[in-house]
Design a protein that fits this description.
Shape: elongated
Helix content: 25-40%
Number of helices: 6
Order of helices and strands: HEEEHEEEEEEHEEHEEHEEH
Radius of gyration: 35 Å
Low-confidence stretches: 1-16
Mean pLDDT: 80
Strand content: 25-35%
Number of strands: 15
């Protein structure tokens, strides 16, 4: 017994979608407007007044920079694409030849060029895109073929007709000598289109290449945005964690504090903790590891910590010096305005309140 097939199923079984080429053309297949000509003005007999013609609907003359051959099916009706610099520390610089994304460093502890290379390779891996070559010194990453398929016609009884797009790109990473900013650009270097296995004779215009590169660039920047957001959150989380501080005293040595963290993290933490202790930071020199501070005798921190007792340190100007210690630890030395170490008694007296604030975990926003 033959099975009846609903007409609706037949309609669904054989469907035809527009190809990428069709979608860039106007729906009017006849393109009749190309054959339209301007009607001549009325011929006015001699002796009669010539009527006044309105210029409201006059079509302006085409400028010299316009390609007048772009009419009919050659005219691309798609709206322009826009570059979206969504990642933290990025902005667009658009020139006549290409579009480049200016990328600025968000962490001085991370090499910007290395960061961009690593995140781009992670992006390629996430999209299953293979690399033909990479050259860190030249700052180039060249992809293999990136393929995308679109079923244009499908049938329950035959094979689907597929429109295949194949492209290859080259990424350029150019970081300035100071390492704080650089440029990211991409170029479309190979392009193929085929329909139902037949290679299409496609001649890409400059606008076509621009659209494809903008689309690929936006996809790449979107991935960089996600990764940079993760990195910033991880950095804030790391900075929020407390740092253990030990008091180092010896019979023949000056007392100092030893932070269980590298120099940069200890330096950043001190910039938060010192004002909370009533130390006003008036100047700093990270190259020398020096923080210049003033201490006043009306600090709420001191009075709450020691009550009616005298402050363990007199009001005045002081310096805090940081030195790299062993095993990624940092020495913290308390000095007076003459760059002389304070007494062991003062360093020991301030230690309890200081270490408590240094070890305190902070909330991540």
């Amino acid at each position: 017994m033959l099975k009846q097939i609903s007409p609706l199923i037949l309609v669904a079984a054989v469907t035809a979608c527009s190809t990428p080429i069709d979608r860039r053309q106007a729906n009017d297949t006849d393109q009749n407007y190309q054959d339209l000509t301007a009607e001549p003005q009325l011929i006015i007999p001699e002796g009669l007044h010539k009527p006044t013609y309105s210029k409201e609907y006059d079509i302006p003359a085409v400028g010299s920079k316009v390609d007048q051959s772009l009419v009919g099916k050659r005219l691309d009706i798609r709206p322009p694409l826009q570059v979206l610099p969504m990642a933290e520390g990025t902005r667009v610089e658009e020139g006549s030849d290409n579009i480049k994304i200016v990328v600025e460093s968000i962490d001085n502890d991370i090499d910007l060029k290395q960061e961009l290379f690593e995140v781009l390779k992670e992006y390629f891996a996430s999209k299953s895109i293979s690399l033909r070559s990479e050259d860190f010194e030249k700052g180039t990453l060249e992809t293999d073929w990136i393929e995308s398929d679109q079923v244009i016609e499908s049938s329950l009884w035959g094979s689907d007709k597929v429109y295949k797009l194949k492209q290859r790109y080259i990424y350029h990473v150019d970081v300035r000598p100071h390492g704080r900013s650089g440029n990211l650009t991409i170029d479309l270097i190979e392009h193929e289109e085929s329909y139902d296995g037949d290679l299409q004779d496609i001649l890409l215009s400059g606008e076509d290449k621009r659209r494809y590169t903008i689309d690929r660039l936006n996809d790449s920047i979107s991935y960089i945005s996600i990764e940079r957001a993760k990195a910033l959150k991880a950095k804030r989380l790391k900075q929020s964690l407390g740092i253990d501080v030990d008091l180092i005293t010896a019979a023949e040595e000056q007392a100092y504090w030893l932070a269980d963290a590298e120099f940069k993290r200890t330096w950043d933490r001190l910039r938060i903790v010192l004002p909370e202790m009533g130390f006003e930071i008036v100047d700093m020199d990270s190259n020398k590891g020096l923080l210049y501070i003033n201490v006043s005798d009306d600090s709420g921190f001191w009075s709450s910590l020691w009550g009616e007792k005298e402050l363990p340190i007199e009001a005045g100007s002081y310096r805090i010096e940081l030195k790299d210690g062993i095993d990624d630890k940092t020495e913290i030395h308390l000095l007076n305005a003459k760059n002389e170490p304070l007494s062991n008694e003062v360093v020991t007296a301030v230690y309890d309140g200081f270490s408590e604030l240094m070890q305190e975990d902070r909330k991540v926003r």
